[in-house]
Each structure stands twice: as structure tokens, then as C-alpha cells.
Amino acid sequence: MPKWISQANTDAFYGNPRGRNGRASPTWERSSLVVVAAPWKLVTSWDGTLVRGIRMHYLCAGSLQMVLENIWKAAGKDERQIRTWGMHLYGGGYNYRLMRGSNQLSMHAWGCAVDFDPAKNGFGDTSPAFANHKPVLNAFADEGWTWGGRWGKPNGMHWQAADV
What we know:
By secondary structure, this protein is an alpha+beta fold. The strands form two sheets. A five-stranded mixed β-sheet has the order 2-4-5-7-6, with helices on one face. Strands 1-3 form a two-stranded antiparallel sheet. The protein has helices at residues 10-14, 26-32, 58-74, 79-85, 134-142, and strands at residues 33-36, 43-44, 54-57, 89-92, 113-116, 146-147, 158-160. The protein contains five helices and seven strands; from the N terminus they run ααβββααββαββ. It has one domain (7-160): Muramoyl-pentapeptide Carboxypeptidase, domain 2 (2-Layer Sandwich).
């Protein structure tokens, strides 16, 4: 199982994504981000648009690919089971932005975080649906990803390749 760095050390591990004028660095984006394809049909949670892949940092992309493959196997390679778990609803990967209610960058800004099924696993929801889907939780845990559903202010849609 990979051991991920702490959030405080993301620049040292993933590089500095900050560009000029409070925007993302295009140079960092080109050299750091890759696309991870899900083995099932993945759509945006907000309008159902087909998602080609998830933009992630190359240092955690292989791990995310392993997570997705293990979820697919646990689902018996059945799209219906994937939909039952909500793993077909992509909520976001790389996104250069601040954490909600903070002046610090979100883990999404380093491309080391991903969200699924936000409607059933919302920020602050104390009973996120993913808590009932052990194969999903186990696949991420086996790769050392941190699940936001266990935080003091839960964020059940969120996993990150960084410790809190």
C-alpha cells in the first residue's frame, strides 16, 4: 500500500501548482497531470455528460487506476452494481481552487483528490452513502487514500492521495 504525504507537504511531493495572478501554472499542469480512464461508463454528476477520464497527478494516477480496477472487479464488472454504489457519478478530480471556507488550496488543486456521487455523499452529511459500500471504501483504503467521510465535518464524496 502506498504511503502518501501529508497535506502540509503537497508542494514538496506533487510540485507547486501555483501560477501567476492566483491562477494555476500551465507549465505545472502540462508536466504533472494525466488522464485516468474508468473501466466503466463515467458521467458527470451535474448533467450526465460522458467523462473521458479523470485528470490526476501522475504520481497518484497509477494508484487511482488500481482503485478503479479493484472496484470494477468487486462489482463483478457489472455496470448496474457500479450505479448502485454511485461510482458512475463523477464529481471532480483536478480543479485549481481553494478548500471550501479556506484560503488554502484544495487537494484537488494538486490533482491528488477525486469526488464521486456528491448528491448522496455531500459535504457535511453525517451518513454518506459510501459508508454502506465497503468494496468502494476498501479499494481506496488498500491504496492508502484518505476518505473524507470520516472527517469531523464529513465529505463523503471525497478521496485524496494525501494524509490529513
